[in-house]
Amino acid sequence: MLRKHRLVILGLLCALLVGGIISQAIAAEAASQVEYVIFIKTSDVDDAGTDSDLRMSLCGTKGCTGWEYVDDPSRDDREQGRTDQHVRRWTDVGTLTQVKIYQEWNGSWWRLNSIRVDYNGKKASFGYDRWVDRGTWIHIDADR
What is the pTM of this model? Predict the structure, then answer.
């Protein structure tokens, strides 16, 4: 009987230890997430807007985020002369150095003016002001 109680107590201690380790891992993961506020500005020239889906990856001194869609299904994104705002919680990639964009095939050409990202009290700007064709990958270095 005493042995059975010892095993139960040992099992409870192990569960507490493992639970603590898991809690620490979850807390560490949450701490490595950053809120990025992304402003995507479409140029104000004729036919600059597009209905294409857009994927983005942010790169910095610690690596890159994964590729994520930056579309708002509740509104028409990337219209001529408009700046769209998207808020995402992604992995902390350090000081931003580059933004990568992929425009899907399901729309028209798009005239991207610029992208600005606010994060951790910092701002990173990425000027472009060129046409982006459908099915195109572009990499834009941060403005200096």
Answer: 0.78
